Amino acid sequence: MRDALLRFCAIVLACGSIAATQAQAQPNLIARGTLTTSRAGYYKDLSGLNYTLENGVSANLLGGLGSGLTYVSGDTFLAVPDRGPNAVSYNSLIDDTASYVERFHTIQMQLLPNPHGTLPFRVEPKLKDTTLLFALAPLHYGDGTAYGVPSGVPPINSHFRHYFSGRSDDFNSATGSDDQFDARLDAESIRVSNDGWSVFISDEYGPYVYQFSRLTGERIRSFQLPPEFYVAHKNTTTASEQAANTSGRVPNKGMEGLAITPDGRKLVGILQAATIQDAAAKQKKLLRMAVIDIASGKVIHEFGYLLTDGSGVSDIIALNNHEFIVDERDGNGLGDGSTAVVKKLYKIDLAKAIDITGMTSADAAAAAASTPKSLFLDIVGILNANGIVSMQIPAKLEGVTFGSDVRQKGKTIHTIWVANDNDFLQDYAGITNSNPNQYFVFGFTDADLAGSVYVPQHVERFPWEG
After folding, report:
1. Range of the structural domain that residue 243 is part of
2. Is residue 88 helix, strand or coil?
3. What is the CA angle 316-319-320, rounded to 5?
4. DSSP characters for 214-266?
5. Burial class of residue 147 (count of CB atoms within 10 Å of its CB; 0-12, 13-18, 19+)
6. pTM
7. How far apart are CA 428 and CA 415, in angstroms?
8. Total tally of structural domains belonging to the chain
9. Is the pLDDT of residue 155 over 60?
10. Of 52, 161, 162, 213, which has the highest C-beta tally within 10 A?
């Protein structure tokens, strides 16, 4: 009876979602920009790191800026790269990873009138600062001996600063993937607290959700996620870790997206793909979400999300305290040598979602199907309409955030910013600047929300920011 009821709800609400999709207008592209340099130089960040990683790449390489993106206030944004330049061939036994120190960047971006351009606004991103992430307590690093590589300990470590690293062997093999003292971190999304003093970062390795000081980069807190998110046996490569586990997140497809509600009270994290156990139960389209109460640090809900036509999810942002925008995509496009097909933003309403805690995979998928879902933005379609061919649309459009409102033709326009993860391969195949860090800005009005209400998050500025 319960299964039948869930499936009936799924059919009814799916029909409603289709109707909403057909009736809803779409946002428009209003600006785009690239970030290729800083005051430190061409594709150099502001970390101050002046050494070379074990794979031969500079430790201050500026790349991957679209893994995660969040708006703070004024013209300030924060961006987080992932585990570093592992697209460079180095050592397959450790997934070609290096001891790249995890970090986030502070970027200044302002929409300016563009009277002579094809788009109404222009944006010229400027890197303002780079903040390295560390823990006060010692972390577990790999010594590299078994793989014929140097130690995974970052050379800048000190007695009170143990930096997080992208190296896949930086973990304690005696513990499960929920060990918060593992040094390895593959950051994928970033959000800022309402008071402006801390950031929340989601990770694929654990998966983890960590809280860091925005000012210093020190880890403040680690949130415990549902046990079915973790793997029991960690390893250094995707294939070996997948083979060693029968449950938990798929390697390199852990906690991909992270949202914070406008009231600043809850975090919503979403896995990139189905867990190992859900995929084994033939529920490959089922992605799990954890809702975290920030004050208590507890997971208060677990919800499901069903993929429509993408291969996974890259980010999630809060439209208001119960509705969210989810970034669903394929892996095709610029940087992959193929043609982009699916880069879509969907709107969902978790106020009407069914908690899937303790459910079987089949029941969880049926429950997830009942969550209202409608298309908000077909990115490929809009970019094509603006003269950007599908082969030039980045494969990894991963970072999504709302920005400040602008005025256009006497109307208030809300903005949504989308950024790419270029895998630190901005120059390849002998072509300079062929895959830069890019930002696409879309404008939308209240009428585009099909009855939903946009509630922006208000983040306090630092006192010296004015």
Report:
1. 2-465
2. coil
3. 125
4. TTT-BEEEEEPPPGGGS-SS--SSHHHHHHT-SSSPPTT-SEEEEEE-TTS-E
5. middle
6. 0.94
7. 32
8. 1
9. yes
10. 162
